[in-house]
Design a protein that fits this description.
Elements lengths: L1 E7 L5 H10 L4 E3 H8 L5 H10 L12 H10 L1 H28 L4 E5 L15 E5 L2 H12 L3 H9 L4 H7 L2 E4 L4 H15 L5 H5 L2 H22 L1
Parallel strand pairs: 1-3, 1-4, 2-3, 4-5
Length: about 230
């Protein structure tokens, strides 16, 4: 099984690239969706956030006010780190469960779409790692337009994350999303060729069918040995 890591920065266009993979039939495990699920009202993640941040970050429905919580953690590095520590175990287990479900379905290639791929060390479990990069000024302008915020607020949010240039250095594959969507699609096609290349022997061995084949071989081997011994 090939587990491909996909990451980027805020407003870098990672979601666009993720959608392109999905349109080609490649399963996506979206860490943002997992994160939303683990903080739903009544969950363990929800209880931890409520305890640490108080009722002020709850909506009338009792659900987490994600916008309010985001304002708090983006402006306070310590609280951001606290939130990451609180949710990391829940998000990691949620991602693992999604991967297991896809493995059971027999999927041979999947994409892990994780904003904090390097920060959480989950890049160690993925190969290749794809980084969606964009130049700094374009990133700021896109974030301001998307969220309707000031340049200062945009810079604060971007600076709260690992620099995109550093992520690019750590990547196996880079998609430069600084230009038009059509230009990004051309670069995506080049990366897709690598992602869909034949699996290595190791990757095949860890696929569902590969594991079943190994188990079958072991069982047959045991039977043969027992017959010869008899």
């Amino acid at each position: 099984m090939r587990i491909v890591g996909l990451t980027g920065g805020i407003s870098s266009g990672k979601s666009t690239v993720s959608s392109l993979f999905k349109s080609r039939g490649i399963p996506i495990v979206d860490a943002d969706i997992v994160a939303r699920n683990v903080v739903r009202k009544g969950t363990g993640g929800w209880k931890k956030i409520k305890t640490e941040f108080g009722d002020a970050i709850l909506l009338e429905s009792g659900e987490i006010d994600r916008a309010r919580l985001g304002q708090i953690v983006f402006s306070d590095p310590e609280k951001r780190q606290l939130l990451n520590r609180l949710l990391a175990p829940h998000i990691s287990s949620g991602i693992l469960w999604e991967v297991i479900k896809l493995w059971l379905k027999g999927c041979k290639v999947i994409i892990l779409d994780i904003p904090l791929l390097f920060e959480t060390k989950m890049n160690l479990w993925t190969h290749p790692v794809i980084v969606v990069w964009v130049d700094p000024e374009t990133q700021i302008q896109r974030l301001m337009a998307r969220d309707g915020i000031s340049e200062e607020q945009a810079r604060n949010r971007i600076e709260a994350q690992m620099p995109l240039d550093l992520k690019r250095e750590k990547a196996d594959l880079v998609i430069d999303n600084s230009g038009s969507l059509e230009e990004t699609k051309v670069k995506f096609e080049q990366v897709l060729t690598r992602v869909n290349s034949p699996l290595s022997l190791k990757e095949c061995a860890f696929c569902r069918d590969g594991v079943l084949s190994i188990l079958l071989s072991v069982v047959v081997g045991i039977i043969v040995i027992k017959k010869n011994v008899s």
